[in-house]
Every structure is written in C-alpha cells, then in structure tokens.
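Below is a filled-in request sheet from our internal design queue. Each sheet records the structural input a requester submitted and the sequence that came back. We keep these sheets so that new team members can see what a complete request looks like end to end.

REQUESTER: design group, bay 2
PRIORITY: normal
MODE: inverse folding
CHAIN LENGTH: 225
BACKBONE (tokenized):
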C-alpha cells in the first residue's frame, strides 16, 4: 500500500465536493440494468426468428439457402448465449467496480479536507488495492499532481509490465487527457471512473473534455476504459 505524501495543507475550498459523484454512479448502474433488459429482449427476438426459419425450411423451397440461414442463426444464438454468460460475471465485476469507485470518491473527499480539489484514485491488481492517491495540485503547488498521474508514475516505477497489465485504475472522475496518456504509458489494463469529464465540465467549466477513452484509442493503447 503506497500513500503519496500529504504534507503542508495550505489553501482550501476549491470546487465543491462531491456527493454528486454518488448520484452519477447510481445513474450508471440503472443504465446498466436497462442494457441487460435490452439483451434479454434481443434473445427473445432471436428465438422467434428461429421459429420463422424453421417454417421456411418446412416449405422446402430453396433448401440450400434456408440451410445457410439456419447455420447463421445458430451461430448468432451461440453469441447470445456467450453474451449472457459474460453478463453474469460482469455483474460481479460491476459490483466490485462500484465499491472501488466509492473508495476513489472517499479519497476525493479526503483531498478536499487536505486543501485540494476533489479528486481521488486507486490502483487494484488481482482484487487487491495496491496504491491510493489524492489530488495534491494545491498542497504541492504542482499542476500535474492529479492522483491518476501520481499513481501511473508510481506504477511505472514500482511494478513490472506484467503486473501493470493486470491493474485497474479507479478514479472518482474521468481521467483528464494528461492522466489518460500517463495511464496509457503505464500500460494499465483498465480504467473505471465515477463522474464523466463532461459532467464535471458542466459544473466547473474548466475541464479539457477529450474523453479518456479517445485519448487511449488514438494512442493505439489496449487499456479498457
Ligand atoms: Zn488528470
């Protein structure tokens, strides 16, 4: 467990802090449930289409063509089945992700108590928290002392590439383009965040709203956002 130093708390206030973060997460979770609903609907449609294909087969015209369709249908069904199975494990993952994002929000609240703006992040590998970071831009008088940046640099120093490729970075807010690039350089596996940069920008107006995902995509990175 590594905690970046937290000395000389000067300054204070800053952007208002962060119960809204919790709201955001609730919203994302409910979105997700509706996604699952959509998947179920699709699989229902899939089944009824299957019956349609069976009826075509019974008619017997253009047998070759119908067979091909049936084969396609089967492979679609397999895909749907896989997706469902993946969805169940994803639910566990989402629960864990939500817990870690909650922790990132706690770290953001601590950052405010220390005199900084409300951002926090942590790194998890194999379901173990190995590093936590506060925002320290004010207390360290360092415009780059975002918690994601601090942790990405720490990971680059302390972990080997294989370990970094198993790390998930959790952040209270979507990592800014600077931090997204650092995360890409560190070669982390995933990024999960609470509040979207666009949402934060609507509140504060001073965010560089290039999405984290876009930065990593355009860098050709493998990190999942
Ligand atoms: Zn940043």
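RETURNED SEQUENCE:
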């Amino acid at each position: 467990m590594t905690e970046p130093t937290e000395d000389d708390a000067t300054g204070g206030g800053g952007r208002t802090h962060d119960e809204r973060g919790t709201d955001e997460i609730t919203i994302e979770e409910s979105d997700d449930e509706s996604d699952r609903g959509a998947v179920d609907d699709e699989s229902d449609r899939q089944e009824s289409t299957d019956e349609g294909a069976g009826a075509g087969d019974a008619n017997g015209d253009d047998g070759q063509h119908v067979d091909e369709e049936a084969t396609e249908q089967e492979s679609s069904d397999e895909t749907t089945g896989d997706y469902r199975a993946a969805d169940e494990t994803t639910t566990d993952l989402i629960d864990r992700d939500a817990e870690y994002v909650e922790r990132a929000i706690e770290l953001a609240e601590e950052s405010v108590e220390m005199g900084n703006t409300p951002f926090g992040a942590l790194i998890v590998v194999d379901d173990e928290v190995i590093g936590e970071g506060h925002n320290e831009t004010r207390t360290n008088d360092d415009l780059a002392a975002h918690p994601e940046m601090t942790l990405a640099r720490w990971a680059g120093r302390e972990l080997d590439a294989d370990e970094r490729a198993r790390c998930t970075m959790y952040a209270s807010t979507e990592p800014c383009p600077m931090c997204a690039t650092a995360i890409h350089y560190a070669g982390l596996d995933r990024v999960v965040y609470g509040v979207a940069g666009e949402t934060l920008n609507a509140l504060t107006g001073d965010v560089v709203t290039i999405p984290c995902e876009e930065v990593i995509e355009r860098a050709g990175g493998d990190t999942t956002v």
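SHEET NOTES:
- Confidence is low (pLDDT under 50) at residues 1-86.
- The chain has seven helices and four strands.
FILED BY: M.R.
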